[in-house]
């Protein structure tokens, strides 16, 4: 009997354990931290051996294969020992893929991947397909492969998941865009991070598709250097293209094979130029999957959007409050500021991942009337924008940030939480930060 060891007892780890057990592996799950009670119960019910707060090396190093959860870095000593022992290390997606014949649609990129994934899923589900949603969001992909028999899956995949994938071959792959992110995991080598993203297309054949942003110079440049057999489908909001997605004034147009589709951007539920791109990517998939055009139009106009991503919270005294807590890097905040159409009070700050704020300068000059710094160390933000805006305030809690914003904002303004930073200094994660913002707004 082959032994499967799983590092990490979260959603992907427990899902992989269930699939491994079903496929006849001897399964052992090990988590250096605590396993949530809910997951403990599931592991026990399924008769899966597990440990927490430790890694028993004798157990782990006797594995035939190890599934490493994406949150565990390669630098971790246990991972290095596994690699030294020449035991194959795979991602959840790599482990699960041989056990399903479903059509796989996989989406990666630095920003926009969650929105694009959810929108694609929404289009396909409304189009009547029997479709699952997984990867970085929702229920574990491996778990769904074990317990449900979907015809296709829409998966959001991170560079970390792709790093440990070798045979993964999506029928349709999307790269939304590239910007420096998570560089701490790639020895601060942007090229290495980009190469990870492009692993999504490495096994694709002529019958598969790669959808990508043709306005992203880094992406286009890298694509010209690699050898992909996939049929390429670009999209652009700045230039005409013979095939793929384009924007003609206010009309989003798509041309695939001999098929054409168009919609007025006023009918898109999601606002902002970057969301036109997300809509182009998702619509390309829907067209390839032969969804009716009327259904695509309806679905694009009734999509609810993603929590913590340019989420409209409330309008109070004619001031719109927007939660964009998911903007954990400068590039994401660029999109948020770019889509503002009224004077903006901007709440920014957190754990800086080596941010360069210069690319935001023109937008801040044009749109931002006040900056509220919410972080333990705000030095870089103050240095960057201190001379650009009239009002700059430092606060120590979300409640203070929202109350201060309310005092500064006038009728017709927008208060935007778009931190451009990670959240671990004052919050558990970006969801916790977003929820605290919404609660503080509701309590005004």
TrEMBL record:
Binding sites annotated in the UniProt record for ATP: 109-115
InterPro entries named in the record: Mur-like_cat_sf, Mur_ligase_C, Mur_ligase_C_dom_sf, Mur_ligase_cen, MurD
Xref: Pfam families: Mur_ligase_C, Mur_ligase_M
GO biological process, one term: cell division
Span of domain Mur ligase central: 107-285
Domain of life: Bacteria
Catalytic activity line of the entry: UDP-N-acetyl-alpha-D-muramoyl-L-alanine + D-glutamate + ATP = UDP-N-acetyl-alpha-D-muramoyl-L-alanyl-D-glutamate + ADP + phosphate + H(+)
GO molecular function: ATP binding; UDP-N-acetylmuramoylalanine-D-glutamate ligase activity
Spans traversing the lipid bilayer: none
Pathway the protein acts in: Cell wall biogenesis; peptidoglycan biosynthesis
Domain called Mur ligase C-terminal: residue spans: 308-421
Subcellular location: Cytoplasm
Keyword terms: ATP-binding, Cell cycle, Cell division, Cell shape, Cell wall biogenesis/degradation, Cytoplasm, Ligase, Nucleotide-binding, Peptidoglycan synthesis
Enzyme class, UniProt record, top EC level: ligase
EC code: 6.3.2.9
Record's function text: Cell wall formation. Catalyzes the addition of glutamate to the nucleotide precursor UDP-N-acetylmuramoyl-L-alanine (UMA).
Similarity comment: Belongs to the MurCDEF family.
The name this protein goes by in its record: UDP-N-acetylmuramoylalanine--D-glutamate ligase
């Amino acid at each position: 009997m082959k032994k499967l060891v799983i590092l990490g007892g979260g959603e992907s780890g427990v899902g992989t354990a269930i699939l491994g057990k079903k496929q006849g592996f001897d399964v052992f799950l090990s988590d250096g931290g605590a396993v949530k009670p809910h997951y403990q119960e599931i592991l026990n019910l399924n008769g899966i051996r597990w440990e927490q707060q430790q890694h028993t090396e004798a157990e782990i190093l006797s594995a035939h294969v190890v599934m490493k959860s994406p949150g565990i870095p390669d630098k971790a000593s246990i991972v290095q020992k596994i690699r030294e022992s020449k035991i194959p290390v795979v991602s959840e997606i790599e482990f699960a893929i041989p056990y399903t014949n479903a059509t796989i649609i996989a989406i990666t990129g630095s920003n926009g991947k969650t929105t694009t994934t959810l929108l694609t899923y929404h289009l396909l589900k409304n189009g009547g397909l029997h479709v699952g949603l997984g990867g970085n969001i929702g229920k574990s992909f491996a778990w769904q492969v074990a317990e449900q028999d979907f015809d296709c899956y829409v998966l959001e995949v991170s560079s970390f998941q792709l790093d440990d994938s070798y045979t993964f071959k999506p029928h349709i792959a999307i790269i939304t865009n590239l910007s420096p992110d998570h560089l701490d995991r790639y020895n601060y080598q942007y090229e290495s991070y980009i190469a990870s993203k492009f692993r999504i297309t490495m096994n694709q054949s002529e019958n598969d598709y790669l959808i990508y942003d043709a306005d992203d110079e880094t992406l286009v440049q890298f694509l010209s250097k690699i050898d992909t057999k996939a049929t390429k489908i670009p999209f652009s909001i700045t230039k005409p293209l013979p095939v793929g997605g384009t924007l003609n004034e206010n009309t989003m147009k798509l041309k695939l094979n001999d098929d054409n589709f168009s919609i007025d951007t006023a009918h898109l539920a999601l606002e902002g130029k970057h969301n036109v791109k997300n809509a182009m990517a998702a619509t390309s998939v829907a067209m390839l999957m032969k969804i009716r055009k009327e259904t695509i139009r309806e679905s694009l106009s009734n999509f609810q959007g993603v929590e913590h991503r340019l989420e409209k919270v409330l309008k109070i005294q004619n001031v719109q409050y927007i939660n964009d807590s998911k903007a954990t890097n400068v590039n994401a905040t660029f999109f948020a500021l770019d889509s503002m159409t009224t004077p903006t009070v901007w709440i920014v700050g957190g754990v800086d991942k080596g941010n360069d704020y210069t690319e935001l300068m023109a937008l801040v000059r044009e749109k931002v009337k006040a900056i509220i710094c919410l972080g333990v160390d705000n030095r870089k933000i103050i240095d960057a924008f201190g001379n650009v805006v009239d009002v700059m305030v430092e606060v120590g809690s979300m409640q203070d940030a929202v109350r201060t914003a309310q005092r500064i904002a006038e009728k017709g303004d927008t208060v935007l939480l778009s931190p451009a930073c990670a959240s671990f200094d004052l919050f558990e994660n970006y969801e916790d930060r977003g929820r605290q913002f919404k609660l503080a707004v509701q309590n005004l």
